[in-house]
Amino acid sequence: MGGTTLTRRRHAVVVGGSLAGLLSARVLLDHFEEVTLLERDGFPGEPVSRPGVPQGRHLHVLWEHGRGLLDGLIPGLESDLLAGGAPDLRLPADFLWLTSGGWRRRFDTTRMLTFSRGLLDHAVRGRLFGEPRLAVRTGIEVTGLTGDEAVTGVRYTERGDAARAEELMAADLVVDATGRGSHAPAWLAELGRPLPRETRIDPLLGYASRYYAIPPGHDPGWKALYLQAGPPEAKRTGGLFPQEGGRWICSLSGAGGDYPPTDEEGYLEYARGLRDPVLYEAIKDAEPLTPVVSFRRTAGHRRHYDRMRSWPAGFAAIGDSVCAFNPIYGQGITVAAASALELDRMLREDRSTRWFQRRAKRAGAGAWLISTGEDRRYAETQGPRVLPHTRLINAYVSLAVRAANTDPDSCADMLDVLGLAKPPTSLFRPAALARIMANRSRPPEAAPLLPEPAAR
Ligand SMILES: Cc1cc2nc3c(=O)[nH]c(=O)nc-3n(C[C@H](O)[C@H](O)[C@H](O)COP(=O)(O)OP(=O)(O)OC[C@H]3O[C@@H](n4cnc5c(N)ncnc54)[C@H](O)[C@@H]3O)c2cc1C
Questions:
Q1: For ligand 1, what atom is nearest to the CA of residue 19?
Q2: Across 187-211, average pLDDT
Q3: For residue 443, is it within any domain?
């Protein structure tokens, strides 16, 4: 089942108006007469974060590959972000980057766009909303699906009015983009479908973030700091990245239950416990602009919709709803964009929603492998047993990290993989392998003070 393609393309409903939902709506407008976006939150008129996307108050970045995907889906987006003040950083040239294998030399390898989530989402909405065939309804909580063999619509209530009866909205296609907390498995169970298998890997990671004003005249020779954990013992990561508005966002995180505190003193003390004091030194006298906020819903999960024996026509799930990763690698938006392109392909090639779920899984496969592999380095990580091949791959990745720290081509290989431009298997190509083996044992250098010219 689920092999049937859509026979009617009059009305599509997207549930959830964060990035996976917005990008899906963009794609569906090319294939349906009308698209309705249902979001339980309100959308702010300003580039600020909102309660429905609580992770939006923490560090978000976009790798070069994801940036290209997004700009392809929403033409003009990148120039809007740059006009809004989003810093466009050379990676790693503009960074002091302490990896698990030591300091990374500051090659000019690729680029990374940083921004507040408020700015990114506002810019996407700015390009999308106003499209006459798109109806945007806020304050709408979707509570279930209608249909049987095929999904035929959604059930919903208006938020804040508990007494109000559920209403129905018919659709030829429903796309679930409700994120990590998606109730799609329960919604499908109500239609008589079995629950999907789910893999969950939880490194017990917590974030705590705060904005600081960048001190006037601050010019230590770097624009961003990224101090990664050194698993299994050193569990703390710290990122200090510039954002629009002359601010730094400081996101501290700890795996294995080593959660960063949110009180003033505890936060600074935690920063002091990172593997190098440079971040602590930068923030200790800087002016805080916000209180410290925390986020702990970071477990990786993968719902195996692609493996269900039957899948309803008229329904697709996308983004964090299907697969969410340890956020430390900054890959969720790129995966959402790649999946939206698969949704487009499904409709252009007249494929089934079941086909789409297989493609969505593939779109997230690299990010899943990277993040769960790293998560398994911590003894405290909860999830399925660590298999011997994971240990072997992790040992190889450790060598690859060391090589990337000192060799410009290995650095490019590594960043292509982390940024999802290439699959993790590309690190096993003969040329990459030869570079890794040639550079694996160079000792990590001291913090590199100067950026280097473009490598390739
Ligand atoms: C701390 C943290 C940092 C991250 N950093 C990065 C990064 O640097 N780079 C990157 O690419 N990714 C990052 N991510 C991942 C990124 O935030 C997500 O992948 C991205 O937001 C896409 O998610 P989504 O649209 O699938 O779901 P979400 O962003 O979670 O949005 C779900 C939406 O659905 C709405 N909703 C939920 N239930 C209902 C309902 N029943 N009815 C109606 N509406 C509903 C919610 O209000 C919300 O708007 C990070 C994640 C975390 C947790």
A1: 25
A2: 95
A3: no
